[in-house]
Task: structure prediction
Amino acid sequence: MKKRRKLGRGVAIVGAGMSKFGMFKDKDSKDLFAEAFLELQDSVDKGIDPNEIDALYLGNFSNDFFMHQSHWGPIISDLIGMTPKPATRTEGACASSALAFREGIFAIASGFYDMVLVGGLEEMSKRTTEEVAEGLALATVPYEGQAGFTFPGVFGAIATAYFAKYGANREHLMNVTIKSHNNAPLNPKAQYPLTVRDIMQAKLKSAEKKGLPVPDWSDEKAFLKDPRVNPMVAWPMHLFDCCPISDGASCMLLVAEEIARNFTDDPIHVLGIGQGSGRGLHACDDLTYFEATRFAAQEAYGMSGLTPDDVQFAEVHDCFSIAELLHIEDLGFFKPGEGYKAVADGLTRLDGPKPINTSGGLKCKGHPVGATGVSQLYEVWTQLRGKAGKRQVSIKDLHIGGAHNLGGTGGTCTFTILGRR
Amino acid sequence: MKKRRKLGRGVAIVGAGMSKFGMFKDKDSKDLFAEAFLELQDSVDKGIDPNEIDALYLGNFSNDFFMHQSHWGPIISDLIGMTPKPATRTEGACASSALAFREGIFAIASGFYDMVLVGGLEEMSKRTTEEVAEGLALATVPYEGQAGFTFPGVFGAIATAYFAKYGANREHLMNVTIKSHNNAPLNPKAQYPLTVRDIMQAKLKSAEKKGLPVPDWSDEKAFLKDPRVNPMVAWPMHLFDCCPISDGASCMLLVAEEIARNFTDDPIHVLGIGQGSGRGLHACDDLTYFEATRFAAQEAYGMSGLTPDDVQFAEVHDCFSIAELLHIEDLGFFKPGEGYKAVADGLTRLDGPKPINTSGGLKCKGHPVGATGVSQLYEVWTQLRGKAGKRQVSIKDLHIGGAHNLGGTGGTCTFTILGRR
Result:
């Protein structure tokens, strides 16, 4: 019988912010974190005095590699005037800031602190695509990256296994991509706020204008099947199956539950947390699920006493379209092998019964790896508070959402359930 | 009035291990961690079942840079058979594993976990000295490293300021070095288990054997003043003022206080923890102290209700000889400007009233940066349990010790007080 884990003291979120995600020649990591932190300060309904913040946890994957600078805790602590208070960096590849969020929770639940700032950042676009691919490969297990396996290759292998086992095909991946792109224009922070149809129509208009032969794309899928616009990266991963290279920062203000109402009349509570670790593809008996995600989900459901059905919407880690399919199954939203059918049936659309990646997901919102985990929680928080504007989920009595973050090739996975008590 | 911080649940140490520190051509990070973990298992008086460990926190500075591999949490979790349980990497430059220790404490104190493994590792010696210097400079703040300031330069500037303010000189640094070297041969894990006198006599013997002119070194200081054996690195830092390049790993087993006696009749308790962040040298009003260390010390003393006089011995971060002088003042063991006199008077010797760096310190034990923080705590734990062999502190009623870790140029500082209740 699995032990049900609990925190000795509840934790609530009273503010959050994120920078616009994108590729910014003229902004560095500090600019981006400042942008996020300024929004956070404005987001606290009853205001905060930043001097009351006790500690900082900051997720960063490898600005070591990307920007030749590590030790970002004190740099950000200095930026926002927090020194000499403590600042700790966490790293779990693309799940780095989900770990920062989790450590912030433990620090408050332990009784040591009452108010903790958590966040993440990454600055990737100053490097070439090849360098970014090399940098990201640092997060694979040695049997993968050092053997030449890059991330599109890893997820291509996973997709092939999923196709073989469950009978899905490339069109099912396209459904994920099209769905995420439909959400993105509704998110002002998204790196690519364009639907696939928008992109297609822009290409058609451009061809017409230039007097070139106008392609005969009957619909979005025909467009995505055209290798001129959607070339293969690593079968069956094509360009539109892959998230972009991004810069960005995100942050969130956590407080002990008993003081949450000093800051807002609408605190969002941490109902469940879970984290798991994985061994890498070489050690998997089956490539169609992530054991670490399943473990994290079990922990979060166990702590919260909730079931997958109780989670009304979620952000899940769609570094590649296939990842979204695996995760919505691993989190229990759909049965194994049923995820791709659910997406095909529109169940995960913004207006569906289980909206997934309302933000546009990593695919369209962008994926500055160290910032992603907290940016997912930002989206869930924003939706729960009914402040997601045009992309607001319309589910009645919206009160519980989830965020799932994956690092490496399943090396670090987290699942967090937020909601109202 | 500063708030006194407390943990909602006490935490105790019931086991610890560390690899030998050194430069190992034939051992990698996993070999080293395995060495430490095997010792840890043997060190638990009543034994443990590793399957009972709930989570892992692992400090690593930048194997990203040194070994082209990040995301070490799951690699080590896999190594010791812990997957799919969570594994989190912390980074705070040379204080990386002190942060892992701290997060392990919070995770238990929060009530979420009962038994957490914490540790650290770094693998540096496969890179050239120039590359290591470049890698370490990633941990300075951007105004320093990116401007060409390396660590010996930073601590050279600090030493110069200390000399100017307090009237110390190079011989006072030598006292620190000679003292640490006197302890090192008593530590079987030390990278350089030799006294300065040993090294001097070996050089004399070698000269004699080769028929070369035999140097006229009247004592250890004369030896250290000879630029042929102790060349300048960055004034007044000479070779013997600087810690070496090292590989190594360390780990420690933390449990909730109420279950500690299931594992040992002699648990060592976490009495006080503190952590601070700093802005870098450009922002200091005075280079002769570290604000982050003072802040960390205040927190640890505040939590424990203890004073500097209560801490009977300590490991402090002597990346450079001058650092030890600053820290023993910042921690309150000696008044500002009095540290160098205390060392000259022998007060910090193994048989003195306030032994400092009984392990030989970073200087002689070695400094695999991510492993150092927990290795310091390992030394304190070993001493408190009376198991330090030939280097055992002989103070009567030994029951409280401290460990101080510094990352970067004071960007991250921690102070931890361990003891018996």
